[in-house]
Amino acid sequence: MMLKIIKILHLIAAGLTYLLALLSKVLVSQKEKEKREQAAEWEAYALSWRVAVEANNVRPWRTVPPECHTHVQTYMSSGQYHSDLDLIVKQILSYAQTLTLSHDGFDAWILDVDDTCVSNISYYQAKRFGCDPFDSAIFKAWIMKGMCPANRAVKVLFDALIERGFKVFLLTGRDEATLGKITTENLHNEGFVGYERLILRSPEFKGQSAVRYKSAIRKAIEGEGYRIWGNVGDQWSDLQGECLGKRTFKLPNPMYFIS
């Protein structure tokens, strides 16, 4: 009788063990499903957010939303970002090839520097691709290394513009006094040679918005007699204000916003 009871108890224990294992599996499956649904929801939101950012419908913003981190990281690192640059540069080159240059040497083009000519992805990778607040001291230390790599597609554009005979102006918000030398060297080392002028922010423009500062510089360039045929930048503030040129071209950058 006792053996029979023990056997029954063993069967009951085995059944309970099976039920607990089954329940655990169901719970794990449910959690995984919820995670997948949450990830899909965040991905959809992040894609919409990035499109809205590029369309300049989200402004101003200080950091990338945390739920967009994986999306922006993947976008910047998987190759899609560079594919987008390639496509945009092809459009710019198609436009440039339709232009007839004069013989007076005053046909100009303007290119931004940071995340246009050269890339700061390595800095932003350490800042979770913009999810962490911008740190001017750390960013300056990064710049001072002189290791910003060229954006390959924009380097192709730069070379083509120089070859066509455009006078290319490199216009940046970097501080002239502290970053002028290292910026010049970095650009030279990355093959940006033959441009007309590198213009950095001088003391007279300190504290001014990017729109106001770059508008003033473009106005001065036109005041010298130059015709600005194209203007390329990764920030909308590169492409707003006065004396924008005949056409503007926005490069993608979902990592930060400059007003």
Automatic annotation (TrEMBL):
One of its GO terms (molecular function) is nutrient reservoir activity. InterPro entries: Acid_phosphat_B-like, Acid_phosphatase_pln, APS1/VSP, HAD-like_sf, HAD_sf. It comes from the Eukaryota. Keywords: Glycoprotein, Signal, Storage protein. May function as somatic storage protein during early seedling development. Belongs to the APS1/VSP family. This is Acid phosphatase 1. It comes from Flemingia macrophylla.
